[in-house]
């Protein structure tokens, strides 16, 4: 059976590009690993933030769209994006958020402690203490802990996680059903079972969640499986840093499957990730026009 290792990346929509960079690099201390454009809407930036080497499972990405109306977090969306820190790190993060006047609430679920807060555009974020991380002596965010899905049909989303993506259902606590993927980052996915408001796409909401395929062969197998099960996936698309295909689960959430390869060092060396505006080869001829029209960044 095909099994994903977990989250490859999560992509959200925000308004102000400079504010987006400032928050995720200054407050959360993530690295801007790629500055490019939305391949489908090249008048909009596409920012990628992650760990120092841009590994799958650490990447949160954004389309900063200044003129886009605000959305509403609700059903058929990723409701909460959760970052992983080592046990004993939450006191550091509580103090850090307080220094930036960011309010948070504390929670305890499935024997894990978390704090929940919002970014400047209203995206719901969480920092979770997670055992078994690679760097147990660091208080820094190490990647995704997982995500909470607000499905319009929780049973149908659960079926996709289990039977299409190969995750294991490991239990229920209150209004949350938990699944586990095979990796050690971004591997815990909760489905909220209780009703919530209908989600509306727009700034401050997640656009899609992407799952990891270890190579192009496995990626092709997923496309064939999804087609056979009538999930009507897209064709495999070239995203330069990975191959991508998209489909909707039965609960209305936009899912992507993305390959781990070739990665974010294909066009920049590790020490220079995120420094320049990187374009796909087919858009290089439009560089001057794009750079002139995109919002200026400092």
Explain what this protein looks like in three dimensions.
This protein has 298 residues and is α+β, with helices and mostly antiparallel strands. It contains 5 helices and 16 strands. The chain has helices at residues 17-27, 90-99, 154-163, 216-228, 287-293, and strands spanning 7-14, 31-37, 45-50, 59-64, 77-85, 105-109, 112-118, 124-129, 143-150, 168-173, 176-180, 188-192, 205-213, 237-238, 242-248, 254-262. The strands form 2 sheets. An 8-stranded mixed β-sheet has the order 2-3-4-1-13-16-15-14. The N and C termini lie far apart (47 Å). The mean pLDDT is 96. Residues 6-130, 143-260 form the VOC domain. This is Ring-cleaving dioxygenase.
Produce the secondary structure layout:
Blueprint: E1 7-14, H1 17-27, E2 31-37, E3 45-50, E4 59-64, E5 77-85, H2 90-99, E6 105-109, E7 112-118, E8 124-129, E9 143-150, H3 154-163, E10 168-173, E11 176-180, E12 188-192, E13 205-213, H4 216-228, E14 237-238, E15 242-248, E16 254-262, H5 287-293
Parallel strand pairs: 1-4, 5-8, 9-12, 13-16
Antiparallel strand pairs: 1-13, 2-3, 3-4, 5-9, 6-7, 7-8, 10-11, 11-12, 14-15, 15-16
């Amino acid at each position: 059976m095909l099994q994903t290792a977990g989250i490859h990346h999560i992509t959200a929509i925000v308004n102000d590009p400079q504010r987006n960079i400032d928050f995720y690099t200054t407050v959360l201390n993530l690295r801007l690993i790629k500055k490019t454009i939305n391949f489908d809407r090249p008048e909009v930036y596409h920012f990628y933030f992650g760990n120092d080497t841009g590994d799958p499972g650490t990447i949160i990405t954004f389309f900063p769209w200044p003129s886009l109306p605000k959305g509403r977090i609700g059903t058929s969306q990723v409701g909460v994006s959760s970052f992983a820190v080592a046990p004993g790190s939450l006191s550091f993060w509580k103090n850090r958020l307080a220094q930036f006047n960011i309010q948070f609430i504390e929670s305890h679920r499935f024997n894990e402690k978390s704090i929940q807060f919002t970014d400047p555009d209203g995206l719901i974020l969480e920092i979770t203490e997670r055992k078994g991380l690679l760097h147990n002596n660091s208080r820094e965010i190490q990647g995704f802990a997982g995500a909470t899905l607000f499905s319009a049909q929780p049973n149908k989303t659960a079926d996709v996680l289990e039977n299409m993506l190969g995750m294991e259902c490991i239990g229920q606590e209150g209004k949350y059903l938990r699944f586990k993927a095979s990796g050690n980052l971004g591997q815990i996915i909760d489905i909220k079972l209780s009703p919530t408001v209908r989600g509306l796409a727009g700034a401050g909401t997640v656009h899609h969640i992407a799952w990891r395929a270890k190579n192009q062969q496995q990626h092709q197998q997923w496309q064939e499986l999804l087609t056979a099960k009538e999930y009507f996936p897209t064709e495999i698309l070239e995203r330069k840093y990975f191959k991508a295909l998209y489909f909707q689960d039965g609960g209305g959430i936009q899912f992507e499957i993305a390959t781990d390869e070739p990665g974010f060092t294909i066009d920049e060396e590790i020490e220079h990730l995120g420094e320049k505006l990187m374009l796909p080869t087919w858009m290089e001829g439009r560089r001057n026009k794009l750079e002139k029209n995109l919002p200026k960044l400092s």
